[in-house]
């Protein structure tokens, strides 16, 4: 068996790599309803259901429904209320009704934009249309750009542009500004201030983002498209946060919108898309561990009419690692093009290509010497127990897709999102399988895993509004399709001799690898879903139902071939009451369904995972939009959970029965003053295995792996606006994660820790207008360089948590 990459016959070794040029091409065809000619925005009739309430919220809902971009100074709307608007109206009349009684006026400045003006003694802006300072833009898409840390709209949870306060479930949004302020280098780092989200295997892995929410693993979508996942393989795409506009963490089951999902939640990653406002940005970054990185981001209109928009984002990184022989290299490029033939129609094609090469800081070491005492002493955090001449992790990934949207004169609209995602991985490692009696010498094995996965998704939906008596309905009907092809080949063999963990000598010749198994799985899923968002006065009910049909075929060299054909009906219902003072209590119920890409210990198909959640909570959005608070309590259950085969020579999984997680999550994001922002969160989780099957009785009553009972964080960001220090910004945060268990039998307890983060920034434009657009940001995570064990699987596999990381980013935007 020639054990080389599935698609690429060569592999680079050591620290020298051939950076292959990628040629991405796709032929895309689709059909939809005939396109109706669109009138100018002032004449386009849209059905609105904007309730009375804070003016900022009303304008946000108007922008989402009409697609009109609004420019205004945030100070002129602060504290004002709108009477709302309901019914089918043209955009000019609808905007006028929303502004009625506020003393503000509007002026359409283009085919798809309007300016709101008014008198503001605080800013010196008059109603005559003088230059507007500190403007904000409301895009006609709830999942798009967001200023600051607070997101008010969301499209990921309901697939419609919906105010977050009206979504009857907890949704945590990490904005572009938060990603930059906290210096996040991975999605895992970007979400570590999110309540209830933890790194499933610790936080030091530079290969993959594997996380849990509410006690269970989460899956990832990119722009609503399911990223690859598989039974054995590590064929995961890792998306660089620099290419993202925002990250939406959907808590609890999300099957109604996205089909197969796990009950803990879903993380949707939203790529940067073309903007109508020109954007030009270049940046360089340096840091400890020889970290060097360059970035660029360009966007804006191509033609004078703004019918064609583009975006091009790129990144290159070369860095060392905390562990000896560690390194981290990346090349990333993401182009996107938008075509708007009419004001009612848009078509965006986008994609990305990325290469990664790394030896990760995620290095297994024995519990003796890390978590527990060892007579030979404590092991240093930089100790590498592998074989650098053999080891390495190489990934090549790409995606390409399009987003199409057309609004009809009737007020209905059609959307179609299509995307193809692909990843190939070659992973070589030298793990150890035995520690001798002196607790000093290791016996090691050389391994290689070749993983490859593709997903193709297409989602077509129709949305519209109508009334039945006093009830306003916003209906979504959709059909989606998922195709997943996942494969994995694994080979291994024993090294000769032993490895001295306390006086390491490297250079052992890797043995010839023996193929152990070859696995491939193909899955097809078709889902039909419907959702109705009903509004009556201040009551909002969201109800959805979905039917999934899934067939999968798996081939395993050890167990043969088996096919799975399953169907499922999942649903969700939630009720929100929106008080005029900004509070919105809610209750909801939702279910999930997820087939398992694996087999039992006897080679039979496993039962699908099934989950259900009851959730109740309250959200608060201040009238000025500068504070958003969510408090949620939940009861979550999952049936047919799996457990590893206790026989180390066997294959397949056991199904351990059922698990339950109860908890409480709190999150607050607020601008305490125009210069001071706060993010605070807390999560309490109580997990337990409630039912076991024969062979797993030892797990009954045990806690789930890596589910801390308590988790909390706080982040403060202060900017000096005036005086000799104007332009200086200070930020800092504390992250607490309580103790948890690192194995299913609860034999290895991983202690809790408190970590300190810090940030320092300076806007050179405050020093001299000639330097406008130039800023410097310094970020430090685990500032005190606390040494801790972040994860243990068993007595031979414990992992140190991430050490201190410091980066300095110099960025110029014009």
Automatic annotation (TrEMBL):
GO molecular function, one term: signaling receptor activity
Topological type in the membrane: Multi-pass membrane protein
SUPFAM superfamilies named in the record: Porins
GO biological process: siderophore transport
Keyword NADP among UniProt keywords: no
CDD domains linked to this entry: ligand_gated_channel
Record-linked SMART domains: STN (SM00965)
Alphabetic keyword roster: Cell outer membrane, Ion transport, Iron, Iron transport, Membrane, Receptor, Signal, TonB box, Transmembrane, Transmembrane beta strand, Transport
Gene3D superfamilies: 3.55.50.30, TonB-dependent receptor, beta-barrel domain, TonB-dependent receptor, plug domain
Subcellular location: Cell outer membrane
Principal location listed in the UniProt entry: membrane
Cellular component, GO, one term: cell outer membrane
Boundaries of every Secretin/TonB short N-terminal domain copy: 68-119
Family of this protein: Belongs to the TonB-dependent receptor family.
NCBIfam families per UniProt: TonB-siderophor
Protein name: Iron uptake receptor
């Amino acid at each position: 068996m020639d054990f080389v990459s599935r698609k690429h016959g060569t592999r680079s070794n050591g620290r020298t790599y051939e950076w292959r040029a990628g040629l991405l091409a796709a032929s895309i065809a689709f059909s939809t309803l005939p396109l109706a000619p669109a009138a100018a925005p002032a004449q386009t009739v849209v059905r609105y259901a904007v309730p009375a309430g804070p003016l900022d919220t009303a304008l946000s809902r108007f922008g989402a429904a009409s697609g009109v971009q609004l420019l205004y100074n945030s100070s002129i709307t602060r504290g004002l209320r709108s009477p709302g608007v309901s019914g089918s109206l043209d955009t000019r009349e609808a905007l006028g009704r929303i502004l009625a009684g506020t003393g503000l006026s509007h002026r359409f400045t283009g085919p798809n934009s309007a300016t709101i003006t008014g008198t503001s003694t605080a800013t010196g802006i008059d109603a005559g249309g003088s230059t507007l300072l500190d403007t904000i833009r409301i895009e006609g898409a709830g999942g798009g750009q967001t200023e600051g840390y607070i997101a008010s709209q969301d499209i990921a949870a309901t697939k419609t542009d919906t105010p977050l306060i009206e979504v009857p479930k907890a949704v945590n949004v990490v904005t572009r500004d938060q990603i930059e302020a906290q210096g996040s280098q991975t999605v895992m780092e970007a979400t570590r201030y999110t309540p209830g989200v933890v790194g499933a295997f610790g936080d030091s892995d530079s290969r993959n983002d594997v996380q849990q929410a509410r006690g269970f693993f989460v899956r990832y979508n990119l722009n609503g498209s399911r990223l690859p996942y598989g039974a054995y393989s590590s064929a995961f795409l890792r998306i660089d946060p620099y290419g993202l506009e925002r990250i939406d963490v959907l808590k609890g089951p999300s099957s109604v919108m996205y089909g197969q999902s796990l009950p803990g939640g879903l993380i949707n990653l939203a790529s940067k898309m073309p903007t109508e406002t020109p954007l030009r940005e270049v940046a360089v970054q340096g840091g400890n561990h020889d970290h060097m990185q360059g970035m660029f981001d360009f966007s804006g209109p191509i033609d004078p009419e703004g019918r064609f928009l583009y975006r091009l984002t790129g990144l290159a990184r070369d860095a060392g690692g905390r562990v000896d022989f560690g390194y981290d290299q990346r090349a990333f490029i993401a182009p996107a093009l938008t075509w708007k033939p009419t004001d009612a129609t848009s078509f965006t094609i986008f994609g990305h290509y990325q290469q990664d090469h790394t030896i990760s800081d995620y290095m297994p070491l024995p519990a003796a010497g890390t978590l527990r005492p060892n007579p030979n002493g404590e092991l240093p955090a930089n100790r590498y127990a592998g074989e650098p001449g053999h080891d390495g992790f190489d990934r090549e990934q790409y995606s390409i897709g399009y987003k199409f949207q057309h609004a009809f004169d009737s007020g209905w609209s059609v959307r179609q999102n299509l995307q193809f995602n692909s990843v190939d991985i070659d992973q070589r490692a030298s793990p150890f399988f035995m520690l001798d009696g002196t607790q000093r010498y290791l016996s090691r094995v050389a391994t290689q895993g070749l993983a490859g996965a593709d997903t193709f998704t297409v989602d077509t939906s129709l949305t519209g509004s109508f009334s039945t008596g006093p009830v306003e309905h916003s209906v979504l009907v959709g059909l989606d399709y998922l195709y997943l092809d996942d494969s994995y080949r694994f080979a291994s063999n024993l090294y000769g001799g032993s490895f001295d963990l306390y006086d390491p000598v490297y250079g052992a010749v890797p043995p010839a690898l023996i193929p152990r198994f070859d696995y491939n799985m193909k899955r097809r899923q078709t889902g039909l879903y419907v959702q109705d968002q009903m509004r009556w006065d201040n009551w909002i009910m969201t109800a959805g139902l979905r039917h999934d049909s899934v067939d999968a075929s798996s081939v395993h060299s050890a167990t043969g071939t088996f096919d799975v054909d399953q169907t499922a009906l999942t649903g969700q219902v939630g009720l929100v009451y929106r008080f005029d003072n900004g509070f919105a209590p809610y209750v909801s119920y939702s279910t999930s369904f997820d087939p398992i890409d694996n087999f039992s210990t006897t080679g039979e198909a496993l039962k699908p995972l099934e989950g259900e959640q009851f959730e109740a909570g309250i959200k608060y959005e201040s009238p000025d939009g500068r504070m958003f608070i969510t408090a949620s309590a939940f009861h979550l259950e999952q049936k047919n959970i799996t457990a590893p085969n206790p026989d180390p020579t066997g294959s397949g999984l056991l199904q351990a029965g059922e698990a339950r997680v109860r908890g409480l999550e709190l999150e607050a994001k607020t601008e305490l003053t125009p210069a001071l922002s706060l993010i605070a969160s807390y999560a309490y989780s109580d997990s337990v295995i409630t039912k076991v099957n024969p062979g797993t009785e030892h797990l009954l009553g045990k806690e789930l792996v890596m589910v801390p009972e308590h988790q909390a964080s706080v982040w403060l960001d202060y900017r000096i606006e005036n005086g000799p220090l104007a332009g200086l910004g200070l930020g800092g945060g504390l992250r607490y994660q309580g103790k948890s268990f690192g194995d299913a039998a609860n034999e290895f307890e991983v202690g809790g820790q408190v970590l300190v983060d810090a940030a320092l920034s300076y806007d050179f434009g405050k020093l001299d207008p000639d330097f406008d657009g130039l800023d410097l940001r310094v970020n430090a995570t685990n500032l005190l360089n606390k040494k801790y064990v972040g994860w243990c699987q068993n007595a031979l596999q414990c992992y140190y948590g991430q050490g201190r990381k410091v980066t300095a980013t110099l960025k110029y935007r014009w």
